[in-house]
Amino acid sequence: MTAQARTLEASHVLATVRNHIGHLTLNRPEGLNALTLGMVRSLQRQLDAWREDDQVKAVVLRGEGPKGFCAGGDIRALYDSYQAGSTLCEVFFEEEYALDLSLHRYSKPVVVLMDGFTLGGGMGLAQGCDLRVVTERSRLAMPEVGIGYFPDVGASYFLSRVPGELGVYLGVTGKQIQAADALYCGLANWYLPSAALGDFDAGLDRLQFGPYPLKDLQSLLAGLGQQMLEEAPLAELRPAIDHYFSQPDLPAIIEQLRAVNLGHSHAWALATADLLESRSPLAMAVTLQMLRRGRELGLEQCFAQELHVDRQWFEHGDLIEGVRALLIDKDKQPRWNPRTPGEVTAAQVSRFFDGL
Which fold has domain 3-141+190-222? Predict the structure, then answer.
């Protein structure tokens, strides 16, 4: 890598310390702050340094620009590297997962501002943080099945621990949720209106830390925001989601969505069945298996499971075709293999988990 390229990569993660708080900003707003390998490494280096620095009491993580915290990994770059025979995709996921795991285990409190789009790899960063803040602009999702991939970055841990079948629903459909649902699902724990983010920053600069920095940060958030919002759409849909997404497999889920009318959810159920039939059948089936396995696994085991599947996915999964159809040729006509959920066999799914 040239010196100019290294400088550019470094500029994609901005780091500064103010008032004993380390501020990390993802700085690729033109790409919705999507992660590159260089950004992953910059974040890890800075977090490692601040962990050992007694003058740093806490960390705040955010994205540059009003549109998003982080739209995930730079999947186009990973596609290009795989097509060129590079090992970038393997190295990227190994180091990204290690970064995400280190946030779950970080010894100092971390605040993440999930303002705007927080998708895929952005969720991987955010869900390891202690204080996960959403605004009215927040859009959270694990949308991977739409491009023939599966929810990774620890999703088999954090989605499998969402109440009832909501995590399975979010993983298998790839649906986006907003602030009220994020709080209801436990994927966020504070709401701030975006207009209050400036006041939050000012409060951080004035904060006087006692012996428990996490409590000091919570007190600041309590003065500006709240921990619950009324009228979470998923709360109303919860009984239907728990019924449909507890079915044994995808064909059964889709059949129930089309055949059974529960309460006032019939229009939603039909739309959800249509959505599932547009996604990668193999990716959805593997996701369903992965999330159900994840309920019985610890955090490190979930990351190990995802990395094990990922190492096989570029060759045997639907990602290359999904990226071609949606990002390269943009014909939006992916030729999934198998073509329908009913054609996916148990053996095709279980092969990805063999040898774990």
Answer: 2-enoyl-CoA Hydratase; Chain A, domain 1 (3.90.226)
